[in-house]
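for the writeup, i need someone to sanity check this before i put it in the appendix. the sequnce is what the collaborator sent (i think, or maybe the updated version? ugh). structure was predicted straight from it, no edits. if anything looks off just tell me and ill rerun, i have time this weekend
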Amino acid sequence: MRVIVTGGNSGVGKATAAALAAHGHSVLIACRDVDKGHRAAAEIAGDVEVAALDLADLASVRAFADSVESIDVLVNNAGVMGMPLTRTADGFESHIGINHLGHFALTSLLADRITDRVISVASATYLFATLHLDDLNWQRRKYSKWSAYGESKLANLLFVAELANRGVRAYATDPGSTDTDITRSLGMGEHQRIRRLMHTPAQGARATLQAVTTDLPSGTYLAPRFNQLGRPRVTRLRRKAVDPATARRLWDASAELTGCDWPR
């Protein structure tokens, strides 16, 4: 199969790309830092290519999508966590802009070329989040980097729910607590204290790898058995992550903000 892995140049994305290539799949690492992507690809055995994709810039998303001829599986893996208030090239708050809107645009633009499934990497932090559809970009609220991250992960889950509702084979996965570059947003002391308890990137990739080949119903969520740790299992989502009305409203808002939509 031909698989695109966004953010496949490091962490869980790199581990995902390596495992897929080792199993004979053709992998395209799509990442902002192309040099880092080529270094990662050089360390991976198998059919691996690298292409530029900056999810914080819709012009880059469109240029990348235009370069793709066909794809079987899209793994929406890239993300940011715990960032101070910053905005993307298109003016979106960075967590919602990169983690959700960038991937929403990419998936929509590739719709006619995805032959199998879409996988979105989410997080259990959605449990503590409330989606503010009237202020997705934090223009009227006091900013909280952790609330912003949680909302973006809740948006990932609602996106998968709506894809499934529209007849697209789609899955959500959670790597759990994993020792990767994304945890650089934690204080160094805090990170050092907890990293020995965390998954390795290869362990964090297990849920996504299972989603690539599973025959489970579309919309299934695979997450660690013990919330943050353990092998992945089918996990029931809270109502707020699968509510059809909210999922449709988020989809409509995302389409309006990005100018992209899944062709009917």
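The two ends are 25 Å apart (CA to CA). The beta strands are 2-6, 26-31, 48-52, 71-76, 114-121, 170-173, 221-226, 229-234.
thx in advance!!
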